[in-house]
């Protein structure tokens, strides 16, 4: 058992290794997000924005860290989110007491300045807590320089960032250039640490209490009550995650991380710190299912701006400020075990037809709530024109594969065109409706299997779980036999143990090539609900939402056999579809009971 010693003991502590993904927590302010490991270390944080270099990159085996943890390493960790927020309280039971650390990125956020709040508390007994800070910008390439103390704060530079650290007046620089100290708190005592990293020199020191008060108020205003949904607490958590991943400019990153593997050593590890138009639409549509909350306005604004700027050349993904994605490049790290160390993403250069259909559905959802302004209506008309011009062309599709005549892409456009024609009464409305009919007829002729179910593509008769979403949203009438047949085909061939996979990978058994795809589990629930199978819908919903980690966060995939999360974390569109299911299932006469699998 390691017992508390001196502050120098912390310097001798070896670098932390990685944890399983389910054990990480997220704090975020919309402009960037940090992953926290159970030891109290910030394992990942990019600054000043999502797509910039990491200042703490231990998640991928890189340098830079910020640890706040009990000096007694013989402890059991735990923690929780304050309901409806991304304020995370870490908690450790040691041999002699209980220590907690409340932590958040301060909001409302400034795009050029990160403010990371940590409040240590001795819950029971005297607390000895080690603090270890080493900020290294640009993925660790820029160690701290000009480290100095004055006016009650430590200051330093790391690359283009100005660092200020308050609450650690007794810290001492270590051999690696970082700062270390040990806090001693009497039972019931609390101590605030404030870390600022900014592109410009900081002004007057910040007041921790004022920062915490502002952060609490912001979350209270950002996340609705959700008591009218099927799973209120989880729905509030989904709202909090989506708010935390969405910048003031409206762009929502797909996830906070890069290069976390979907399956070990397969090369399928990508950078998700960008705003996918499709994912942004999923989030906006989900929010619109519940009400005209601010996240809907931000999604509409971001997508409308991209459509107006790029028209038919709309990219599938952008940085959160609307810029093109950077090219892929490797980092000099070991990478998360089984994964790589890649930044940038080639998907930004693909043509994905379904993105236009999802954008149309988003604009129609905003129109239903009366919040579609003239600029967004203009973007909607442009998106409809793009569909008319390009729907016959092969595209990379939802899963960003080779260009083919994907069924899902066309059914999404059918739903979007019909929704828009119903909501916007313009001279073009009838044309949009007729175009939807034409696309549906052509797709039915090419992509309905002889057995009556929809197949993946005109040249691929296999099942495809993604088809359930446009079918559930009205691509065909709910009584159309193809809906029931397609859902049955997916349940029979792509579902195991109550979890749903995307599609078949040749002759490989489900679960060997990749994990269950959590988005697809929620779309299965929506499809069952569309058929009026409310108890079955509840079962798919409950089973899928059980796949989160102890922190309540969902990744993209779930390894059913090992009960582990796979892929980047947290995955925004999974939280969005949970929100949509919960809102639909908890509503009025459609309400259904919570039924376990």
Describe this structure in words.
The chain has 597 residues and is an alpha+beta fold. 32% of the residues lie in helices and 20% in strands. An eight-stranded antiparallel β-sheet has the order 6-7-8-9-16-13-12-11, covered by helices on one side. A four-stranded antiparallel β-sheet has the order 1-2-3-4. Helix 14 packs antiparallel against helix 15. The N terminus and C terminus are likely disordered.
Largest sheet: 8 strands, antiparallel
As residue ranges, the low-confidence spans are: 1-14, 588-597
**What is the spatial order of strands in the main beta sheet?**
6-7-8-9-16-13-12-11
* Individual helix count: 15
Q: Termini distance? A: 42 Å
Keywords:
alpha+beta, globular, eight-stranded antiparallel β-sheet, disordered C terminus, 597 residues, four-stranded antiparallel β-sheet
Task: Offer a concise description of the structure.
The protein has 597 residues and is α+β, with helices and mostly antiparallel strands. Helix content is 32%, strand content 20%. The longest helix is centred in the last third of the chain and has 19 residues, at 429-447.
